[in-house]
Design brief:
By secondary structure, the protein is of the alpha/beta class. It has a single domain, classed as pyruvate-formate lyase- activating enzyme. The protein has 10 helices and 12 strands. The strands form 2 sheets. The chain has an 8-stranded mixed beta sheet, with helices on one face. It has a 4-stranded mixed beta sheet with strand order 1-2-6-5, with no helix packed on it. Strand 1 and strand 2 form a beta hairpin. Helix 2 runs parallel beside helix 4. The longest helix is centred in the last third of the chain and has 14 residues. The two termini are 27 Å apart.
Amino acid sequence: MFSNTSRTLQRPPKGLQVEKTKTQTALVRTRIPGFDYVINPYVGCAFGCRFCYVRKFLDFWGIDRPWGSFVYAKVNLPDRLRREVPRRRWPARILMSSATDPYLPQERHFRLTRRVLEILQQVPVDLQILTRSDLVLRDVDLLTRFPHLRVGFSLSTNRPEIKRRLEPRSPAIHRRIRALQTLKQQGIRTYVFLAPLLPLDIESLLRDVVPYVDEILVDFMNYPGMNRRILKQAGLEFVLSPEWIRKTVEELEQRVRPYTPLRIV
């Protein structure tokens, strides 16, 4: 997926390794329903959410580092994309991203996601961006040029005390919600991805999120066996219970669906 040759750029506090690398493919075929390709500008993630399903693939990729301790920037990805665009059939449905966040803090320096957007606006594309970061607001000038675009924010919980236990390094919840509201006000289609579903403040969801989304998607904890110990340490093992899932989904159905489309994925 990417070359083994890379060069360390910096060693920030807390052991995060940021390196350059090269990729052989920009547009990766995917089996994710509703998409033809995924684009992942980075390998790894500085947010390092403890429950992230991507941890499962580190051995397959030959990466012997803890999840959240490395970010590899695919510095040749924009050039690869330019070469691939003429060889692909358009229009195409693209997700950015599936195994990283396209708006990691390192994107401020590398600007890979922005360069990808500049290239994709030249072809007919149905583009979906999924992020945890309000850095997406930097690219509003480009996003508003896409006729078929949705921007989604991953939000496993809107309760800060729950977030601190499982994703302490991801952008603050209020920053994501404020960015969501700003994008919606700019006329961009938006959604929230409640995944993996954790305890929520429904009143806050109805007040701060629902008026600013075109849809809410819900998914549950991937690879529960891999995450059971982590959830137990956080005092949240109950989120794996079918009974808790059933009651939470029922509450979302009853209280949220009347105001915005709600889809269990």
